[in-house]
């Protein structure tokens, strides 16, 4: 029987009611008395030297209150990278300053070099146009192509960085010789060069920020579209503006999707705070979609050569990759971790591979910054690996299911230390593979293929068996790897006198449904109704601390902190109950919302204990403080390792090259599942984005660095009729061994496992149609590209 | 600036509008009805869909000044008279047809318009009709289920859980 409440129940989302009735409160919905409007002035060239900005005409325009340029922020700090990566030779990465507003040079189309504040949005917009007209920028040659960027020492994104190289990273450098030797000795070597296409995250809510300043107290407030308000506070206060953290409150109210792009601190957040201080009025800014395209951190953008050494029977012996990773014009906060420790460490996949070596060169270009986007590094690793394995199967005429089975780690091999530095704690990859084969009705495929053929279509089936490392992250480990922050999390559980509960969590929900799921967990543990638990998030003034939500960490890390705080509540409750029931503390047990004395019928309800904690008339005041509120910090012992098997079926129209995904099966192991409905929704969303990457989404810059795909008219977002119903399953669960809830995380799975399954299916379809000359098609596998491949 | 008067969610309202004020801005800034969202600047995303005289319209594509006297319905006007969720809103909650909620008002308004025109749409018809509404969160699966369920069709029969 499925449960209807608590852990494991598909409780309906309480947040839905406000969203379904138009009562959500997103940043742009906040309207403040005397607010002024900011409009950013952005570069229309990819690379140029700012010769002159004449602000006088714009400043004199109606309604204009202030004009800011890079000069105004020359003395404050830059927006830093969160991870220090060392190159193979031990030298630290190159880390150019990322200013609030571009100063001296503009480095990508959309790089903001000035801002206008006016009484109304239209006035600010008109003045921004004037300012742009009064600005002289000497255009420099744009650096767009990564290979050209590293080859040309003369043309530099940052004048002080000669070869546009941020770092040249090897993982693990000490293994390199052994990998080379294994590759040389391998009976067969498969080579594949591929592009992991640049994506624009395109959360449906554009970024927005509102700054406030109280001159009477010196307090600042930033309301902003953030996945992690505390991190934003740290960055904007301590690193950029030099505001004491206790003088800045950051609120991220309802946030309309993030997918990584709202992890980072952006210059507009500092700008609205500075402007609010200067004017003594609230200052707001909301991106237009075009600005989102130009200035949000993009995702992916790797060019990779992967080699796989194997036996003729398909046993994988060695893997070696060389990747150029685009970081864009500036280092966004996670941009150096994404192509390295979120990518290289995954390159063994769920397989027993003795030798792996990964080389990544991160390259500056005159394009928007690139950073973590749903999956972040792990989709890139998975795509390379699952595509090259598919190619191996074709070259050696092997069955892709059997090859996976042969190489997958088996349950008895855990904990398993990979050659790329991770320790997988648990899993059952055969089980998810079997489940996918069953649910995807692989046995019936030939029949379906024949039916497709009768309609003139080529049907193909593609498989990927994926793994990821998430639940980010053990602080000690990431510290060794170069992270400049800890990645633990915190929660406060406040039991109010009347027994209802407020939980202040460091997780931030921007679609994940934490307000529902976190309440389910607390309710179950304390034996109270879900409706008695309120989840508070997204406000630094209310929450003890938190690193926010990304890297599928909310439950695994923030949820564990909350669970730990609940432990403390129960422990204190036992002390109170022991006193009230005149029993020894060790004789008190807690279950179903009651503290009882073992072997008797003496008991106190949770509500009675809570009341007593706040009205301590019969209470051990000499030894115990009154009140019932506990805070816990939790640092995970390891990453978590969700894994799964995805099977995609496509139909290809050989005349037009159009690809339709006609069936998609995802069998995942997420460990324990707290709310199946929400978990399935997360998988649907990830698969949808994965299909988007595989088939439609392409971010294209021309050779001058102009973004050709800067709107929804040019950038193909997946729409309702681009995707099928998905079959998803999470029954093959092996609970995580090191967090108290046994959860692994599900938010990124779909975006990781899907793209190779789709592309493998397209290649399969073409091979079945006799086009065996097609060994690879880069994403997005558009009709044009498929047609070219067919007719090439 | 002129005063533009219309009926929004059954109430006569009026607010200032310039000639270039879009309906979406009139609703959000003029009337404080922030349930209608702006997700793009090219009329592609559908986050702003409302009903004008009974038809689904992208409110970022029409000028408020041209709608003097019009009947407009927004997401704020979709619940039942007693404040409970209407059938279609309830179906979105029951089938988890929303995550971040940003596309949701537009999705609900478009879906309501579809069901008014076509009370028992097929899966393909729903997908086709919602082509002008982008959702980045849900992969559309549960949105399609919600709309089919709201039309009274047997959802498990059409979509695997
Ligand atoms: S705001 Fe995107 S279509 Fe209207
Ligand atoms: S629910 Fe987030 S965009 Fe649709």
SSE layout and pairing:
The complex is a heterodimer of chains A (792) and B (161).
Chain A: H1 15-20, E1 36-42, E2 48-53, H2 56-59, E3 64-69, E4 105-106, E5 112-118, H3 121-133, E6 135-139, H4 146-151, E7 165-171, H5 176-185, E8 188-196, E9 208-214, E10 219-224, H6 229-241, E11 248-251, H7 267-279, E12 283-286, H8 289-295, E13 302-310, E14 316-328, E15 355-364, H9 378-396, H10 400-407, E16 416-417, E17 423-424, H11 429-439, H12 445-454, E18 458-467, H13 475-480, E19 489-495, E20 501-505, H14 514-526, E21 533-536, H15 554-581, E22 588-591, E23 594-597, E24 603-605, H16 606-614, E25 629-634, E26 643-652, E27 659-669, H17 676-696, E28 726-729, H18 749-768, H19 783-791
Parallel strand pairs in A: 1-12, 10-11, 14-15, 20-21, 27-28
Antiparallel strand pairs in A: 1-5, 2-4, 2-6, 3-5, 7-15, 8-13, 9-10, 9-12, 13-14, 16-17, 18-26, 19-20, 19-25, 22-23, 23-24, 26-27
Helix pairs in contact in A: 9-18, 14-15, 17-18
Chain B: E1 2-8, E2 11-17, H1 23-30, E3 49-52, E4 55-58, E5 71-73, H2 87-94, H3 104-117, H4 123-129, H5 141-150, H6 155-158
Parallel strand pairs in B: 1-5
Antiparallel strand pairs in B: 1-2, 3-4, 3-5
Helix pairs in contact in B: 2-5
The complex binds FE2/S2 (inorganic) cluster (2 copies).
One FE2/S2 (inorganic) cluster (FES) sits between chains B (98-104, 135-138) and A (204, 256-257, 511).
